Every structure is written in C-alpha cells, then in structure tokens.
Amino acid sequence: MTYSSSTPFSEYLRIEQTKYPELTFDDIQKLKESLEDDDNLPPISDKKYLAFLHSCNFDIELAKKTIQRCYRFHFRIPKVFCELDPLDDDMELSYNCLSIGQMPTVNTDKRDRVLFMMFQDTNHEMFEYMSLFKYLVMWMNYTLLKYGTCDGMVIVVDSKGLNWRHIVKIPIGIAGKMLKFLEVGLPVRLKAVHILNAGSATQMIMKMVTRFANQELLEKITLHPVGSDDIFNYISRNELPAEVGGSGKSHSFFNDELYNDLVDIRDDFLEQNEVLNNQMMYVNHRLEEDDE
User: Fold this and answer.
1) CB-side exposure of 271: number of CA atoms within 13 Å?
2) Within a 10 A sphere around the Cβ of 264, how many other Cβ atoms?
3) What is the pTM of this model?
4) Model pLDDT for residues 204-234, shown as the tens digit of each residue
5) Are 64 and 35 spatial neighbours (Cβ–Cβ below 8 Å)?
6) Which residues pair with 158 in a beta bridge?
7) Residue 285 CB: number of other CB atoms within 10 A?
8) pLDDT above 80: residue 118
9) Are 113 and 73 in contact, with CB atoms under 8 Å apart?
10) What is the sign of the dihedral through the CA atoms of 50, 52, 135 and 243?
11) Is 8 exposed, middle or buried (0-12, 13-18, 19+ CB in 10 A)?
C-alpha cells in the first residue's frame, strides 16, 4: 500500500507497525510531549514524529535531539529547506541537468530504498548545487509521505561526466552544513552512498567531504572505480537502470516518474514552506526582542 497526505495517522501508524512493531503510539506521544515547550520548533505532524522515532532506532531521547537539530538546520539554510517548489525554474533546470529517480524496490515493505542519480547534461553552467540539495530534501519528504519508513536509504550516484568545473561551483559553507545535517538531523536512516565511475573529480570532492564529515558518515560512502561493476555486490541488478548495467528501465523513466510525483504533491511543499517561514519569522523576532 502507498499513502497520501490525506491518509489518517491512525491508518499510517497501523501499517507502519506491521513493518516495525517497536513503533508505539505511547512512544510517539512521549516524544511529542518532550518537545511541547520548545518554541523554536514549527508544528510537526504525527507522521513526521513517527519517522524521527524510527530513524533513531526507537530511542526517544535521541529522536528529540535529532528533531531539534533537524529544524535548526532548516532555519540556518532556509533556501534549501523553506523554499521548496518542484515547479520553480531552478527545479526545472535541475530536472533537465540531472536524472534523479527512486528505483522500483518494493516500497511498501521495509527493504532498503534506492535513489539513483546521474547527469543528463554535463554542461556545468546548467548545474547548481542548491537545486540538487532542494531536490533531495523534496525526495526525502515525498518518500516518507508516500511509502513510510524502511530499513535504510541507499543513494547511488553515477559520477560519469563530473569535472572540475562542477566542483568549483560548490558552495562550501552550505555544503558543510548539509553534511552535518546528514550526520545529525535526518528523519530517515541513511544506510549507504555509492559513487560509480569515481575518478579524479570524485577524489577532489571527497577531500572536501573529509574536512567536514565525521567518521560514521565517511564509512557509509563507497567509491567504485571507473568501469567497475562491483556495485552489484551491494545492490541487485533489477534495482538499477540499464545505463549502469542494471536490468531496470532507463534512468530517464525514473527521473520523469519522480519529478511528476513531486509535482503531484506540490501543495504539500507550499504549505510546508509557509509553516516553516512563519516559524522562522517568529524565532527571529523573539531573538531580536531578547537583544533589545
């Protein structure tokens, strides 16, 4: 079964508990109550509380800290988290430059979920990291909303076509914050990141990543040399597109599918933008009053 934004929480919880009996209504309520007095947080849905509890392996205290860190990053990088619209011009540009698709794993069960990325157009002038970051945040919200939780998220990136012209465009400060967000603020379980066709340009990016990322995150990243097919030691062929030796459809099919799915829930993103921006204004106003 898949969900929608109108799926009642009672039904969402019931189905998620068939995957993870450790998810209990009482624990979700305890998590909510532990954050009742935190004025820095926006309104958070019960489905999102469930996601954080799951991502933290059902540890209520860790889930509390993760939620606080997550929204701290939302307000530190509002252009990434608070301005999400799949129909924005920059999203259309990203859609034409990059192919980003969720692979056809059985998303209604608890098995790992695979996101695949590769260049459609290697023109560095079309490529923008901010658009990529926003796209990934939208995907993360979409996959939780539509499919719920799973054992782990696996990201596979075919880096063929990456060159130094792409690398010099990296916004170092924001990229560093995004890496920290991956470490301490995710409402999903990030299991692994696989980089295919990893050449000299990939090594340049990894030097930057090593400066900012902790050891736990670095250990989740696996580089696969140019021409290697050892990715299939980790992921089955039917979970990857034909262009990288998989038995799935073309990457462009999955790119179109995910983009259209994001457009379908555009109203959810616009509503979330409004909630987050109102909360950010409230927090900033309160801080200004404290400074007076």
Assistant:
1) 9
2) 13
3) 0.94
4) 999 999 999 999 999 999 999 999 999 999 9
5) yes
6) 118, 196
7) 10
8) yes
9) no
10) negative
11) exposed
